[in-house]
Amino acid sequence: MTLVPAAEPGPARSRLGINLAGPVDWNTEHPFVDVFRLSRQWISQRQGESWGRGPELKRDAHGWVTELEADCWAETPILTGGHAPTGEYVCLYDGDGELAFKHNARVVSRAPGRIVVEIDGAKGGVLLQLRRTNPTNHVRNLRVVMPGFEPNHREQTFHPAFLRRWSSFNTFRFMDWMETNDSKQRDWRDRPKPEDGNWTEKGVPVEVMVDLCNRLKVNPWFCLPHLATDDYVRQFARLVKGRLDPALTVYVEYSNEIWNGMFAQTKYAEAEGQRLGFGDKPWEAGWRFSAFRSVQIHRLWEEEFGGRERLVRVIATQAAVPYISEQKLQFQEAWKHFDALAVAPYFSMNVSPKGGRNTPGAEEAARWSLDHLLDFVQTNSLPEAADWMRKQKAVADRFKVRLIAYEAGQHLVGVGGAENNDALTALLQAANRHPRMKDFYTRYLDDWKANGGDLCCLFSSIGGYSKWGSWGLLEFADQTSSPKFEAVLEWNRRNPRTH
After folding, report:
1. Contacts of 51 (CB under 8 A, 6+ apart)
2. 122-147, pLDDT tens digit by residue?
3. Which residues pair with 17 in a beta bridge?
4. How many CB atoms sit inside 10 A of residue 498's CB?
């Protein structure tokens, strides 16, 4: 991986934050030197059966397989997104068992507890198989360490290129790292732990997120699970208070996008809001419940931190609808318990099959030239986003809170079935790679600043493009530049905080 030059002025004076890409086996950011951390949940296999049709696996509290039935094995994909270093990876483990590597991998040497395997990281798609495990001493604490990091992998959790790339940003929003959307975590015992076999099932542990922020002196933004009990919230806050550098500020948000009907947290808030009599219409009851529960959560954090000086108490809203912001802020005078109204003012072109008021249908858009599409973004999408910013800033000012962005950037994507139009997907991806996108991001961030926006957390760090969107500022960890990435670094350098 090539180290990316850091952009001045440094975290404390930066206006920008970043949403870090989620922990999945196809992640192309490769933040951890132990790539097993982003392995998929163990898949059960049985000889003679179709893929994934083995018996239910017996696992311990941290997800390690404790025993296997006859003619069965477990396997997990790693590095499926590719673009990882090529070379000799070291697989370390405790316990007694047999491991095998399939696809793009060749075992170089093998000894109890240590296997050296050559992996073609550019191709990706390695299968790690657990062929045998001793029930009285099962295989556990399995690590697959990138080339060159075996001596210090316990202390050097994060890849240096990952640290360098985002070292000049002010805040890391951990929504995806915490697997916030549709979370099932309720009690503190449900949380992800550093000793867990992987961090893809429940998310990255809070201890690891705090460690990252301490290393870079970057502020954390946590999104608490929508089902979390008061004890969960209190224990989470207590752990952060005890471990986080006291010079850092903590952004606290209740879940994510409790207005977006595609998520379980929105449905939960609507049901709870109606149960508590907060409104007859489910959506309005849900908005009000999100404010109500946010206030409760913020009070718990204030109690654990002994005040609110180090906290930014966030309430999030839908950027295009100031009415939702008003409903949340004014309910039971909740605005008195918030420091910031958070929006996601994307410059958007959401293309549906039939189109909408300002957008063509998928078939028509797919026939546009690339220049035509980019002209549309310039003359329609960017001004629309700036208008959202202005209107939301007026709401924030009226309720005496800051305006911040929980997500930001481009939002060119097919929706409602249009994502399956391959020609449209190719066109939208080409737009994201086009040099004009650099100018668009610069203008967009200028508009954010001009309209009084404070912290702006872009979405997102690194991710391969697909029919579901082109979200990453970069597509791969071994990519050093792109129009979006260049624009963001240059803007960050030119626009430091002055307070």
Report:
1. 43, 45
2. 888 899 999 999 999 999 999 999 99
3. 171, 457
4. 6
This prediction has a pTM of 0.96
SS (HEC) of 64-116: CEEECCCCEEEEEEECCCCCCCCEEEEEEEECCEEEEEECCEEEEEEECCEEE
Could you tell me where the beta strands, DSSP code E, fall in 208-249? 219-224
CATH class of this structure's domain 11-30+158-494: alpha beta
Alpha helices in 415-482 (DSSP H): 422-433, 436-450
Number of other residues whose CB lies within 10 A of the CB of residue 129: 16
Q: Exposed e or buried b for every residue in 241-263, given b needs 16+ CB within 10 A?
A: eeebeeebbbbbbbbbbbbeeeb
pLDDT band at 4 (very low <50, low <70, confident <90, very high): very low
Question: Distances from the Cα of 310 to the Cαs of 23, 69, 231, 306, in angstroms?
Answer: 28, 52, 21, 10
**pLDDT tens digits, one per residue of 289-315:** 999 999 999 999 999 999 999 999 999
With residue 45 as reference, give the H or E element that holds it: strand 43-46
DSSP structure string for 157-180: -B-HHHHHHTTT-SEEE-TTTTT-
- The Cα–Cα gap between 367 and 485 comes to 28
Sign of CA dihedral 396, 498, 310, 160: positive
Q: Helix crossing, 264-275 with 282-305: angle to 10°?
A: 100
* Sequence-ordered list of residues with C-beta below 8 angstroms from that of 333, at least 6 positions apart, any chain: none
- For the chain, domain boundaries: 11-30+158-494, 35-152
Q: Which residue has the tokens 């629309």?
A: 384
Q: In what order do the strands lie in the sheet with 43-46?
A: 43-46, 72-78, 126-133, 97-102
- Answer yes or no: are the C-beta atoms of 409 and 319 closer than 8 Å: no
d(CA 89, CA 349): 42
